[in-house]
Amino acid sequence: MASPANQGGRPRQPSLAQLRAFAAVAEHLHFREAAAEIGMSQPALSGAVSALEEALGVQLLERTTRKVLLSPAGERVAARARTVLEAVADLMEEAEAARAPFTGVLRLGVIPTVAPYLLPAVLRLVHDTYPDLDLQVHEEQTASLLDGLAHGRLDLLLLAVPLGVPQVTELPLFDEDFVLVAPKDHWLGGRADIPRGALQELDLLLLDEGHCLRDQALDICREAGRDENTPVTTSAAGLSTLVQLVAGGLGVTLLPRTALRVETGRNDQLTTGYFADPAPSRRIALAMRAGAARQEEFEQFAQALRQALRGLPVRIAQG
Is 167 left (phi over 0), alpha (psi -120 to 50) or beta? Predict the structure, then answer.
């Protein structure tokens, strides 16, 4: 193994071509397959890997006539090489987006209590207005979405706010009221003036821990004067299941207006009631990293989305 060429004994800076060649070999453990994957001749690939070993001053591969193995150092460098190459790909993606807004990949994170009800409008907007945008949707709970945004796994989030998270900019889209959903013939069914205080003694069904909608509903109940020791049955991972439990007579729940038609429209065992003004509500927004390279693009997207959502039973926020 040749030592680094510089006199100080420190490794030379490897090139991206060398890292790409080594990463391909590390993945396939086969020079011919690795060369085919990255469109390089086998001798050039072998030379690039050898040059990387010389530059770093470590042996990365154990070569025999029959197989290729990673050395212990090679395993560590392979992991770092993949990270570097992914970072470079992200950099190129950002540069491409800067050159041509609404092109390339947009990784959108959405919470489960928003995704089924707003995604049709989002997808229609992207299809009709931004045909060159490669929208990739990830449905996760709020904590996971914020982690993905912070670490660059996601570009933009669609979720309930306020988040109260530093270095995250919120672009409000709309406010929507909560509606009481109860079993058929419930005494509050059909009313349009339900006082919040009615929540104090009702058998309330909520989503599992981790859903922001659960926390919002509990906040509403506390504001209504509900005793924190009043039992709350938690037994549903999603709104569809929650509504089925209500239809079965196990209690009542709160649904955001955007979910009402989808979740209750085909079930004749349910009734709904509306709260007196000011009704309990939530705000839905897009969220991005503060100072994001695509900030102007995301702001334009938020404004277009506000227009696309005007047909929903919501109060559109001012841009």
Answer: left
Phi and psi at 202, nearest 5°, equal -75, 150
Beta-strand pair 104-110/281-289: unpaired
Give per-residue pLDDT as tens, 5-29: 454 556 678 999 999 999 999 999 9
Q: For 39, left (φ over 0), alpha (ψ -120 to 50), or beta? A: left
Under a CB-based contact definition with an 8 Å cutoff, are residues 160 and 284 in contact? Answer: yes
Looking up tokens 């491409």 gives 96
177 bridge partner residues = 281
Q: Which residues contact residue 207 at a Cβ distance below 8 angstroms, ignoring those fewer than 6 apart? A: 113, 213, 214, 234, 236, 237, 238, 239, 242
> Bridge partners of 273?
180
Residue range 54-78, pLDDT digits in tens: 999 999 999 877 788 999 999 999 9
DSSP 156-183: EEEEEE----TTEEEEEEEEEEEEEEEE
Angstrom CA distances, 49 to 25, 60, 178, 255, stand at 9, 8, 60, 58
What residues have CB less than 8 Å from 171, skipping those under 6 apart?
285, 286, 287, 288, 298, 299, 302
pTM for the full predicted model: 0.67
User: Pairing state of beta strands 133-139 and 253-256?
Assistant: unpaired
Please give the structure tokens belonging to residue 254: 């709160």
Strand pairing category for 104-110 and 133-139: parallel
Q: How is residue 317 written in tokens?
A: 């926020």
Q: Per the structure block, which two tokens stand in for 147?
A: 């982690």
